[in-house]
Amino acid sequence: MPRPRPQPHPHPQLGGPAAAPAPAPAAAPAAAPAAAAIDDLNDLDVAPAWFQQYVQQQQQHNAQQLDAQHQQVLQSLQGLRDDLLPFRVAAARAHNRMAPHGAALMGVPSTAANAPNLGAGQVPNGFPRTESGLHRLTGVQVDPLLASYGLDTGGSVPVRRNRLAQHVGVALRLM
């Protein structure tokens, strides 16, 4: 005896006949003008003048802000350098005081108050490399160094050398 065929279930998701598709919603009446405006903008080869002007103003404003921030960073950095200068001077003098004979000296940076011809924080040109080099400086060599540190350039050459040695932390020599 043949088996009867199962009947489809009346619900469409359970195997029943498919329901008629719902009609598509009608397009909103405002969508057509908006789409037309977008199409018009897409057809432009060049942005409108007002938009170009706006972009240019924004770029100028952004550039000015970046310049101002850059200046603030530079000022902060200079402030840090100024704050650290006394510590750099003290560290160089301490190094020179403890350096073994013949060891390299650490250049002592000048300070703004005592170096009118040299930038603050710079080691003067001609700074001797070693203690013995310092004590061999001639009068022509020692005077610009003393002036760079704002020290007196009077006296004999050995007195001037010792004045420089004391300023940079090197042990004094008896004359």
TrEMBL record:
Composition bias type Pro residues, residue spans: 1-11
Sequence segments annotated as region (Disordered): 1-27
Domain of life: Eukaryota
Protein's recorded name: Uncharacterized protein
